[in-house]
Amino acid sequence: MAEGRGSEAPLAVCLMGPTASRKTEIAIALCEAFPFEIISVDSALVYRGMAIGTAKPDAATLARVPHHLVDIRDPEEPYSAGEFVRDARAAIAAIRSAGRVPLLVGGTMMYFRSLLKGIAALPAADPGLRASLDAEAAERGWPALHAELAAVDPASAARIEANDSQRIQRALEVFRASGRTLTDWHAAGPVTSGDADRYLQLALVPEPRAVLHARIEARLDGMLANGFLAELEGLRRRPGLTADAPSMRSVGYRQFWAHLDGRSSFEEARYRALVATRQLAKRQLTWLRGMPEARWHDPLESASIDAITAFLIPFFIA
Predict the structure, then answer these.
(1) Closest by alpha carbon to 156, among 269, 164, 54, 23?
(2) Spatial contact of 92 and 10, defined as CB atoms under 8 Å apart
(3) 137 with 98, same domain?
């Protein structure tokens, strides 16, 4: 491994981008050019049985290119940013000990931030509080709980969309459990330290936005054509799996679960899933704009893989 440009060799490479931005395609191409192994940075790919609705790489791709942190949890189980940091650091150490280079690929920006910047010692998840918040949301709606969050923690509310149930729930759970806001906890500083300067950070930022929106719509329709509803029906038959599970709050699963419950038509579910996915992409791009260390590339340009490869060669080709 070359040290690259006279500096210490990077600990790993981060390939970050919004949904439908060619992350997997570009990552596979990079693995064919460099001694990389992929570590997934995706809060949905950790779950078994969720292949179609997450655009999980197919079995042939997973067999050809080593992936870590894929299919490591059953969908009934929670998985936190803290667990991700622990697992990612273990995978990084294992890959490097084998003489290879970790390539962290995904769009779960909270996971990237927790790994790079460190993570605060937030209160542990409280199933009772979460059930209570779910019950309140069922009665009042998540926008009402978002308004409640804005009253106690305006900084967190400003970062969280009014329908982002998972993040609203966590912020209110932390406040109700501890009497301190999520903003206060983060201001106290990370308990686990980050080492962002040892990572090469690459951001995939598609332009124009309309093209990304078209790709999102085409991907959703492809999932539906490839059996997404049948996949979800199978998941719904699993004992103990409910719509409130973190896995089922993933974009697409949440909207079509409601459809299979009879609470919306297929057309309504598709529209809501499309809007939610576009909102997710917008949040992901906002995160990337707040990461000044990241080098931007437009993944929709035909020469994007060549440009990224040229940038990486001095670091990894002797």
Answers:
(1) 164
(2) no
(3) no
